[in-house]
Design brief:
flat; mainly beta; 3 helices; 11-stranded antiparallel β-sheet; 5% helix; single chain
């Protein structure tokens, strides 16, 4: 193989930027990582207004943040100009009172204002951003890492699907809207307690009596019972399947009675098998005083904002189930990423008077004086180009371009080979 070198001129190199996009759809099961092992890292946070001194509740599915700090930082970054009017606070400018000359001019009014904050507006249109100010207000934040969305999320591409009923989309101007009417209810404050009935307190006649120190929690109702030894010799009989089972719930016929004031006891009636039970039984109770919240929104109602360049979707509408959006798994997030890559084009020009003789050693005859074959010296012989290599100033090979088929040079016209590299 023969090698010939030629240096590029500045006019031979053209750098062209262009934008590329790629669409993604991630269900919750892939928020942390995909099935192929690639780390995604989509996180969700709940922000709550209040004082950090009294509320140190945390949030986050992948990382941990304080709810109050999420609320405050989101307000400072994206909503600090929109705290009194949804379309933004007016910018306070000092008023000029002209004097008799320039030195006599006087400015009256504030020179600084919250209106001077940069809130990362996503459009040149008049912006409208709602921010909840009431005590206890909440917001939900979906954070997409930049390694996934690139330089910014492509406008009109973001879709957030919650429970297949609430579908949120962006309008291309940084606003989020729901696609259809949506109503919901959620239970807040439900908690449970577990009471252990030891084996030696279980009588043969199928009734458990707790000692006076163990009582049914006030305001709680029985949910289920579990016997740790499995279904063998289980005291729980499920009439639906006509067999003894390891677990049973209140809906399967098990009864719980409690007379806390009279005897301070809890009695649970089971199927009698006539033999002592050799294992503990776990009883599960649930609060009967759960707080039920609900809300509804109409179709195409504004629910928040999206910051394309930061990969942040912010839900501020208080009629949304904000807590569930940040904690439950029945969600899907879709968007298109945007990345600018640079295509460098190298123009390799072979003049008609250049490279007309091959340096390939296979053209040398077997004689000791290095004589080439006769056909090489003919006027119609033309070398063929098969490979183009790009070298740095120290002649280190940086890139190799292979031609689809050998290209003959010509002694009558210039030959130009274009090499494109994306980076």
């Amino acid at each position: 193989m023969g090698i010939a070198y030629k240096q590029f001129l500045a006019s031979d190199i053209i750098v062209t930027p262009f934008e590329v996009n790629k669409g993604f759809t991630f269900p919750f099961s892939q928020f942390e990582s995909q099935s192929n092992g690639q780390l995604v890292g989509i996180d969700r946070f709940l922000g709550t207004s209040g004082s950090f001194q009294t509320n140190k509740s945390t949030t986050g599915t992948l990382s941990t943040q304080y709810q109050v700090l999420v609320y405050n930082s989101t307000k400072e970054l994206y909503y600090s100009n929109f705290l009194t009017q949804s379309y933004g606070d007016p910018l306070a400018r000092p008023v000029l009172i002209p004097g008799s000359n320039t030195e006599g001019n006087a400015f009256v009014g504030l020179k600084t204002s919250t209106g001077r904050y940069f809130n990362y507006l996503q459009s040149t249109l008049t912006a409208s951003r709602y921010w909840p100010l009431a005590t206890g207000s909440q917001l939900a934040v979906v954070s997409i890492p930049s390694k996934i969305f690139g330089e910014y999320i492509q406008p009109y591409s973001f879709v957030f699907d919650y429970s297949s009923s609430l579908k949120v989309y962006d309008d291309g101007e940084g606003n989020l809207y729901n696609s259809a009417s949506f109503a919901w209810t959620q239970s807040v404050g439900i908690s449970s307690q577990v009471v252990v009935a030891s084996a030696n307190s279980i009588a043969n006649f199928g009734q458990i009596d707790f000692a006076s120190s163990i009582t049914l929690p006030s305001g709680y109702t029985f949910v289920s019972a579990s016997w740790v030894s499995g279904s063998s010799n289980s005291p729980f009989f499920d009439s639906a399947v006509s067999s003894f089972v390891a677990d049973i719930s209140a809906s399967q016929g098990i009864s719980v009675t409690a007379d806390k004031l009279a005897s301070n006891q809890v009695s649970v009636t089971f199927q009698d098998q006539g033999t002592p039970f050799p294992s503990d039984i776990y009883l599960y109770f649930e609060s009967g005083s759960a707080t039920i919240t609900s809300g509804s929104i109409s179709a195409n109602q504004n629910v928040g904002n999206i910051i394309y360049t930061h990969g942040m979707a912010i839900f501020t509408n208080q009629n949304l189930p904000l807590n569930d959006i940040t904690t439950l798994s029945n969600i899907t997030c879709s968007f298109s990423s945007s990345m600018t890559i640079y295509e460098t084009q190298y123009k390799c020009t072979i003049r008609e008077s250049e490279f007309n003789f091959s340096l390939n050693p296979s053209l040398i005859s077997g004689s000791t004086d290095g004589t080439v074959y006769d056909y090489v010296t003919g006027s119609y012989f033309s070398p063929y180009v098969t490979t183009v290599g790009l070298y740095d100033e120290d002649q280190n090979l940086l890139a190799v371009g292979k031609l689809a088929q050998p290209l003959p040079t010509t002694a009558t016209t210039d030959t130009t080979i274009l090499i494109n590299l994306d980076r």
